[in-house]
Request: fold
Amino acid sequence: MEYRHTQWGFFLAPTFLVCAVVAVSVTATGSEMSTVSTVGMVGFGTALLGVVLMFSRLEVTVNAGQVLAAFLFGWPHREIMLEDVTAIREVRNRWIQGWGIRKISGGWMYNVWGLDAVELEFTSGKVFRIGTDDSENLFAALSLQVTPHGSPDRP
Reply:
């Protein structure tokens, strides 16, 4: 069974808008901003927009014995071979774990929005969490390909 799901992080647009309004306000109220300051503000705004766009979408694909989790431009991404997975579970992240790419206890997490996730545990004991608004279907797709001992099912 092939699985593909794209989740958008809609909270990023309002965040960017607030930052842009603050930046424009600071620029507009500055009586004599130097060219360097103006260029710095524009550079910061451009970099912020790039980060917001990059982490605004997470696409998860499960097929042919692997999982691919990739952000908007295909980078950063993580490709996981299911033969290395020993367990999968539906989990709930704590709000403090945040969004984006995060180091979590025992491994890493990719998340663009929400608290639901599917956690993959590897033969090494490390984990990788994929945040998703479709945890039931992602878990089901992974369950079809991963046996309790971690080797992919063979037809």
Remarks:
- Confidence is low (pLDDT under 50) at residues 150-155.
- Residues 114 and 133 are 7 Å apart (CA to CA).
- The beta strands are 3-8, 57-63, 66-71, 77-81, 85-92, 100-104, 107-111, 116-122, 127-131.
- The first strand starts at residue 3 and ends at 8.
